[in-house]
# Entry
Amino acid sequence: MTPPALRPRVAIAALCAGGFAASVTQTMVIPLQSELPRLLSTSAAHAGWVVTVTLLAGAVAMPIAGRLADMYGKQVVLAACAGTLVAGSVVCAWASTLGPMLAGRALQGLAMGFIPVGISLIRQIAAPGQAATAIAAMSATLGVGGALGLPLSAWIAQTGDWHHMFWLTAALAAVVLLLTLTVVPRHRPDHAPHFDAVGALGLGVGLVAVLIGITRATSWGWLDARTVGTLVAGVLVLLAWGWYELRADEPLVDLRSSARLPVLMTNLAAVAVGFGMMASSIVVPQLLQLPAWTGHGLDQSLLATGLWLAPAGMMMMLFSPVSGRLIDRLGPRIALMIGGAVLGAGYLAALVMMSAPWQLLVASCITAAGVGIGYAAMPSLIMDNVDPRAAAAAVGLNALMRSVGTTLAAAVMATVLTSRTVDHDGILLPSQGAFQACFLIGAGAAVLGVLLTAVIPRRAQASGAGADPVGESLALSR
# Structure
């Protein structure tokens, strides 16, 4: 039997394992992208949805999972997310055609709801003085899972059957499910309000439309009627959704609390930090794999690229204690500004350090440190300024905003890299200036995140916010 003093630590470790398992699925199919049309007997355009559907499902799932956790208990929702990840991984492991693969990948995306719910639960169960570090560790699993998923899946794909990577995630998710059911504490809310099904449907439809417009803009064209029509339709649905939510008695998302300056600015900063994280994940691998005969490519294999990027993911985990100390000593507001500044410094370093793999490794580790600090600070800043009874939903919305930033970054970086090319005997490849422009855009996004965070009042707390679920006051944003 686990001693009482160790139970919170064991539970936090289980939650971090769940966050790692969910985030691995976001990058695990990237090594297979060029082979997916052949493996699934489909076109390249249709195969692209194997990546996109996971992103869309995850974006929709995070705020909805948070709301369900606030209503019915966090452990129940965490177990459901882990079970969904097991099911999705098994479906993908058996899939040999596009339809089942998309179904399985969508289920894997829905499991991303585990992360915001886990973060909000950590705030409740962590020992005094350890919450910030524990939240930082949970937030870091986003980067660690994504970074390690790439070389791991590349190695599996190159040395064995590509289906094995899904069996591996199924086994990992099964362990997480068992741990969630046995070591994560149960907590029943005082009341279970009505679930806003109309709000969930409106949010899902609007988000999917907007994200599809962004993700397909590179292939369709930003001014193509399909892109413009999808984006406009999504925005109109979200506006109607917002109108409905403001009038609902028990809304899916409390937009009035979300409109308060500390929460609003934190969520806008989340878009900028998410953009900064994904920009590096898109640009650096392409530069590493570009042929050396281009004059600026580094001619690395896919597996080597993954290994060069893996330390950046580990850097986020190693910075968890540092992030926690910054939050405890300076407050989450200042910590978020520091994270944005470090992120921007990493991009500026990449601007002048792009002639060797080790140089990009150093720059990537700097950007990862900035992302780690920022990702750790944002949930703390959100939970300091919302009603504790809606903490999971609020953290889920913040995670959604990060996802919007990563989606936007992927589209923008792809547009820049394909619009500034050099013809090498009939082969169009990104120019050195294109990569430099991407690094400058990433630095600009980081600076924007710092500026948005600076607008947050130094001492801001919502009415009734700041108290933890057992009545203890939380620190004010400093």
